[in-house]
Structures are given as C-alpha cells and as structure tokens.
Amino acid sequence: MKDMKKKSFNEILSIDNDDKRIIEMIEKNPDITHSDIAKEIEKSQPAVGARIIKLERKHLLTKQVGFNVKEVDIKVAIVYISTKDVDEIVRKIENCPFINHAFKISGEFNVLCFIAASDLQTIEKLVDLCFRRDKNVINVKTNILIESIHDFVVPIDFQIEDFDGRYCGPGCNMAEDLPKFKFSQQSEDKID
C-alpha cells in the first residue's frame, strides 16, 4: 500500500501560517483591528489588510448576519430528509426563505436542513408542507436543538412569523400543484 501523506490545512487552502493566525484571531474576536493583528504577526497594517482581502476572496473569511443559537431563545430544528431524487429537493429548497442552512449528506438520509422559528408548531407545519407531503421524500427525521455548546450563527427570515402552514413564502420553489404563495395572493388582493 502506498504511503499517503496527509495534507495540512495550509496545503489544502493555499495559505501560510500568518494567514492561519489571522483567521484564528478574527474567529476569536471578529472586531479585532488590523493594527492589533499587525502587531501580533509582526507585519504592516497594509500587509494585514491585503491578506484579509485575499482570505475573503478565497471564502476563508466571511461575514454572516443572524442570531447566535447559543445566546438567543429561538427554536431550531435539524431536519434529515431521505429522498428518491436529491437534486429535485435541492431545487425545491435552495431559495426557500425558511430553510436557514441545507446540505447534501451521505448515509440513510441525503439532505440535512436547519429551520428556525419562534415556536415548534411553525417548524412542524413547514416540515409537513415541504417534505412529508412530497412524493419524492421517503423519510423525514426532525430533531430539535436543545442547547448550542458553541457559537452558531443562523440567518433568519422574519417572514416565517407569517407562515400559516398552508403556503410557503416568496422565492420558494414549491411543486406546481400547490396553490399560489400566500404572500403573492395577499399582494394581488391589495392591487384589486
């Protein structure tokens, strides 16, 4: 058997130790200044700024706005979906304003979603509408996040507060046979 050399993050991500230190410092304190980073890694402030821009372009430093699950009492469900055609489900949910994160995964289930709302009933209605009623879905398993051990930022679309379980929101790729979106229907009513 060939001796497989394990690649480091530096090799995989094409970064050096200074880049790694910058990432670690920003992870620990997102508000850290370029000056403080420059002092720590013994580089000039403009050099640090250039490195940060390079890391952002490589998608190794990103900013995400949302709520920290560890600090805010919002209900979050982790939904596992087993489908016949994973790409069909991905097309259906990729623009859904209520699916906070979604992943293709391996194993018995092939899609994993995070859904956040102010109450569990809203999450349950959304899971029923989007997944349990879909003929492409074989099985759905929902777990409710009890407590986050680490910081975990989740974006949230406040329109979920208006979700009533009958229709999804704007931008969702629901099946053709479902009625029009509740939000579109309300807009049309206002025009008349």
Task: List its traits.
7 helices, 4-stranded antiparallel beta sheet, Arc Repressor Mutant, subunit A, 6 strands, alpha+beta, 192 residues
Descriptive notes:
The chain has a four-stranded antiparallel sheet, with helices on one face. Strands 1-6 form a two-stranded antiparallel ribbon. It has helices spanning 9-13, 17-28, 34-41, 45-57, 86-93, 120-132, 182-191; strands spanning 67-68, 75-83, 99-104, 111-117, 137-144, 153-154. With 192 residues, the protein is an alpha+beta fold. The longest helix is centred in the first third of the chain and has 13 residues, at 45-57. The chain has two domains: 11-57, Arc Repressor Mutant, subunit A (Orthogonal Bundle); 67-176, Alpha-Beta Plaits, CATH 3.30.70. α3 (34-41) packs across α4.
